[in-house]
């Protein structure tokens, strides 16, 4: 314990009473319980619940953890070690958060450590392996904060580094010759002098924007006049200067010049000479500088009051929501696509902020685009925090701290934003509440952000608004039961009507030989007509790649993944066979390895083939594809959307990505290439999902004035679901679906917990699954336990898979007891030696 003693000697805050305090801490690890550490009594005053402390864990490792409780009970089973260092004087995790995290661990059958690990951005999780680097924007001579000698020492060391431009915490400790250095690091982070990261891959590489501004010495009126005189003989440079002053009102706003202008704006301007720009920089008239920009660019000159008047029906809906909030905590806003739900949200957010509460606005990942962020920034400006999973860790820490400090009163974010340290929420909005991307599959906690948001609202006394054009059956049921308020908007905003939806019988067209590849003559003709009228088209195909299967025509051989029980998909662009489950890929085969035949053909089709065929059939059209393969690069997604928005492209072909929340004014046709593959899915939610997908993708058509058209290709137009989609009658769909759910005992009538057993060896996987089933049946009864069963894809990434489905009554008490039993059953299996290597994964409310 030399480390701790060291530390105590340089801190003097002795307190009068000499009680011995202990803290229970949450380590950010999947440990089943909390650990107790002892507080050096000189530091009794410093203990804060929700603050971080550094402790030793294991032989060598030190790491930060969160204080969950303070008490005077020494642990019985082990000798408590001392806390090594206190990092925070104020909580980084709030009390309401701790309560929520406990609930999540219990509800989703995981450990508190797993929740904390998922919740905290890694820069808040310190360990002896953490590393620091200089903040790229930090300039030592111009920075405004005074540095302590310890801080200077660290900056010196970082500045002197050549290649490996980072220091580990261990090196920092050695450098300063003390064991307590976390406060120094925290302070340097606070002063934006350094960045912190855990894995080399997380090292921060900022996006830098090249900007220019007028050099300070020209800023007085007389100097500027002289400058104009000097430049009269150099008209090209004068043009650049004029353009700059046009865009940057240096006299009206003293900060405007400091912020400057993007250099590219001047160099790429068609009427200006790029070399003149560079000459001005070379002669010190313009000054070039770098600005680190975030992924969502802030509007530099926010137009203060771009605000829409709510329409009559929007106002009525808003008022209805407010009235409901008087008596209920949760309201469902069921508004058709394009009904203008966003404007209603904005209005409600404003009211909640006026009332002094915080607001969390959740969106599915893919819907959090610059489109929506820009709208909100215009209204809420710097009070708005943005939380996106593509953000770097440091950007996330910034939002985290911004929420803690009160800088961000409203946050728009993806599912993981539910982890942010709110403590005074007034309103939560869950847009597109039916979206399955609110569910986290891997790793634990396997939570659904919608359900977590409901619980946050409950804990913090906040109101929750769920919004969707196609509400989840479970949600609508709660509304029908009167547990949630229900507000309906059945008309689109403005002139736009709902699109006409037509079915195309591909079997018939195939018989009549009017199919061209996968396009019916009707669809192809309609696409041509729309393009002729300079309108845009979206085509939806549920599969990416060129073809999902490749097969030998002579012997039937099919290439399969080595690690998973799936056939490999053909990707033409890269000329590869790829596994969509593990990423395995190899070159496309031209000769069958089984029989030597060259008749290896593709079967079925994906987005890539649709794109290809279309380019051949309509060479004049500009086609762009949006799927996982084309959006891997950082800004690719935004680029595709922006090209389509600007009508650089006429046709957008894509997977589910094109169905989500996009708002394009000029799209008048949506085509669903193959509806059958969406409907026939072995899951009780298949119909619901298909319905949502059809309605959402249809919702992209005809949003501004023009009447939209949707063409759905199917080999069987008589299927029930089409009827509901065509008539745009959610209620009819719901009534049909809820009956099915009741009849077969599915949610919302029953609760489902899915147990997955994974093992590298098939036999042991099956045996473990059988053993677990036995333990579960013993505790929950035969009727509640279905399986075990191998899923359709029974092997992924070399792990064999078995599934057990547990169906439970909805009652809270039943559920609580059942979860205890499930935990017991899992322990009973894990205690058996032969199943050591088995992974048992519970998933509560699977989707
Ligand atoms: P939803 O989210 O319900 O599908 P949106 O919020 O995207 O619908 O609104 C559809 C379109 O109507 C958007 O282009 C939006 O800008 C426009 N809009 C909605 N409400 C108003 C309003 N009150 N004034 C002007 N335009 C509006
Ligand atoms: Zn063959
Ligand atoms: Zn695979």
TrEMBL record:
Residue ranges of domain Helicase C-terminal in the record: 584-754
Reactions this protein catalyses: Couples ATP hydrolysis with the unwinding of duplex DNA by translocating in the 3'-5' direction; ATP + H2O = ADP + phosphate + H(+)
Metal-binding listed as a keyword: yes
InterPro entries in the record: DEAD/DEAH_box_helicase_dom, Helicase_ATP-bd, Helicase_C-like, P-loop_NTPase, PriA, PriA_3primeBD, PriA_3primeBD_sf, PriA_C
Pfam family name, one: Zn_ribbon_PriA
Keywords annotated in UniProt: ATP-binding, DNA replication, DNA-binding, Helicase, Hydrolase, Isomerase, Metal-binding, Nucleotide-binding, Primosome, Zinc
SUPFAM superfamilies found in the cross-reference section: P-loop containing nucleoside triphosphate hydrolases
SMART domains linked: DEXDc, HELICc
Family: Belongs to the helicase family. PriA subfamily.
Subunit structure, interactors included: Component of the replication restart primosome.
Purpose of the protein: Initiates the restart of stalled replication forks, which reloads the replicative helicase on sites other than the origin of replication. Recognizes and binds to abandoned replication forks and remodels them to uncover a helicase loading site. Promotes assembly of the primosome at these replication forks.
Official protein name in the record: Replication restart protein PriA
Organism this protein belongs to: Hymenobacter aranciens
UniProt lineage: Bacteria, Pseudomonadati, Bacteroidota, Cytophagia, Cytophagales
Gene label: priA
